[in-house]
Amino acid sequence: MAAYVRIGSTAEMPTPGQAREFSAAGRMVCVANVGGRLSAMDNVCLHRGGPLGQGFISGGKVVCPWHGWEFDPLTGAATHNAAACVPVYPLKIEGDDVLVLIS
Ligand code: FES
């Protein structure tokens, strides 16, 4: 059953233009900050499993650190193939806590 899980405090979140990985309910989540907006998606790149949260932001996309595949942090869609989508997770902030909905 889906439930919101705390992944960290607002102070631990990436700053604008950065991505970072967090552990949530036994899986790794990539949190991206694009223009001050936080979003969360699965941390595993669809190419060969690279850690997206160790990548960077370019042109509003999360760029995988291994071979450069790019993903829209809001939809999870790969730039070169919209049919290839990383799961995205709803994210919300409650006070100082950042939570993601893991299904
Ligand atoms: S593993 Fe991500 S681009 Fe290759």
What would CATH call the homologous superfamily? Rieske [2Fe-2S] iron-sulphur domain
Number of domains: 1
Q: Compute the CA-based radius of gyration.
A: 12 Å
Number of strands: 12
Give the number of helices.
0
Oligomer: single chain
Distance between the termini: 6 Å
What CATH calls the topology is Rieske Iron-sulfur Protein
Low-confidence segments:
none
In a few lines, what is going on in this structure?
The chain is an all-beta fold and 103 residues long. It is built from no helices and twelve strands. The strands form four sheets. A four-stranded antiparallel sheet has the order 2-3-4-10, with no helix packed on it. It has a three-stranded antiparallel sheet with strand order 1-12-11, with no helix packed on it.
Write a concise keyword list for the protein shown above.
single chain, 103 residues, mainly beta, Rieske Iron-sulfur Protein, four-stranded antiparallel sheet, three-stranded antiparallel sheet, 12 strands, 53% strand, binds FE2/S2 (inorganic) cluster
Report on the architecture of this protein.
It is a single chain. The chain is an all-beta fold. It has one domain (3-102): Rieske [2Fe-2S] iron-sulphur domain (Rieske Iron-sulfur Protein, 3-layer Sandwich). Helices cover 0% and strands 53% of the residues. It is built from no helices and twelve strands. The chain has strands spanning 3-9, 18-24, 27-34, 37-42, 56-58, 61-63, 70-71, 77-78, 81-85, 88-89, 91-94, 97-102. The strands form four sheets. Strands 2-3-4-10 form a four-stranded antiparallel beta sheet, with no helix packed on it. It is globular, with a radius of gyration of 12 Å. FE2/S2 (inorganic) cluster (FES) binds next to loops.
